[in-house]
Design goal:
The chain is an alpha/beta fold. The protein has 2 domains: 6-151, no CATH class; 164-428, GpdQ, beta-strand dimerisation domain (Transcription Regulator spoIIAA, 2-Layer Sandwich). 25% of the residues lie in helices and 19% in strands. The protein has helices spanning 6-15, 43-67, 99-109, 117-135, 192-196, 203-206, 221-225, 282-300, 328-338, and strands at 87-91, 141-144, 147-151, 168-169, 237-245, 248-255, 278-279, 305-311, 325-326, 342-345, 351-355, 361-365, 383-391, 402-411, 423-428. It has a 7-stranded mixed sheet, covered by helices on one side. A hairpin with a 5-residue loop joins β11 (351-355) and β12. α8 (282-300) runs parallel beside α9 (328-338). The radius of gyration is 24 Å and the shape is globular. The two termini are 33 Å apart.
Amino acid sequence: MFHVLPETAGYLYRAQFPHLRGRLRLDISSRRFPADPARPLDLDCAVEAIGERLLGLLVGCALDAALLPGDGDSGERPLPRPDREHRLRVMPNPREFASFVVQRIDRVFGLDELRKAHRRALSCLARDFYQWVVHQAEGRFSHSDGQVFVRCESPALGDQFEDLEEAEDFELPQFWGQPRSTSLPPRAAGNGAALSEKDRIGLHLIRSYRSAPLYRPGGTVFDQIFTAPLWSSRRRVQSGCAVKRRGVVLHVVRADFTLSRSDRGRRFYTLPGWFGQGRAREAFVAGLVAETTNIRTWISQKGLTPVSLWAIHFDPFSTDATLQLLHSERLVQAAKDAGVTTILCGHTHESKIKPLSDTTTIYVCGTTCQARRKRDDPAVQNDCQILQIDVDSSTPTAQPAIEVCVTWYRYDDDQSSPSFGQFRRLSAH
């Protein structure tokens, strides 16, 4: 486990932009969380968190170099090509990082290159990392003649998508909930419940960015970030992505069940319901069904076979009362009536597959990048999933049968593991 010295953490903190200190925190890792979030820096946690973040950054550079040699994000120095041994040089000498690494360190840690502590912070970080590589590192990191390298490996996701190039994007129209065409109550744009489910680092970190107090419904931050075409804040129900392949169109219909501005949810003992609940209102459930029906009709009229998936944020019938989708039974019955067998969702940060009825199953995506994951709970890890959907189109029906295979990947944070910094394949269900 790579830890920096407390001196290094202190210099990095002083080298940060003043407005980022205590906001872009240096003391949160996958293993630890500061005991007092009101303090801008917990040195005991920071020495581990900074080390973990630096290793992740360097492994990310190696992966990018393997996949996109010579490329770089907009405004960043391009990545050099790996050498003949498929290694990326990240330190030309024991005292400094390569320039492309420095630029990414500045961005990830929020450092101001004009501050006096900047140069000292980088030299201390380079010193700590070099000593660790020489005496403790294994796996992807190596050193030679005072230089440090990280091995470049392309992520292998299996061969289940070898013929994916046959698929085509398919653009869908929007039928339900056009702006200014409905008398439904206005959607509470990105309500506070959507933010409340995220990793709660402390109210003071985001309070100045909210337009509604204490996470109450009615905030607008979500819609300011996730704008069209990702999401239109004026619609509660929207058609999503669609893919056409071999005469079949797999399409997603999305619904927003976050609480409306005046909806306070259902209190759970002393905890307010609006802190994390949603509600499947009859009008929005009906809109979801209507949009699905219209999209299917439109696809069928083009001589293609529609396959419908629903995507929502909340996990229906969650066991956590503060995170429940109120009136989940409405959604379940609607899915059964509409012949929708697969619903994609999230919210609880748990990775799971859960039958809702004898015809409908939900696939909960878990969380890919939360900081405070539960290391002792296999359901709450840094996971991602790839869903392979096979359609049985042998029998012409309005909604053909589908089979969903989920391949599970989990982030490997074991620094001694060859797959450190990558998502390791667990199993398929």
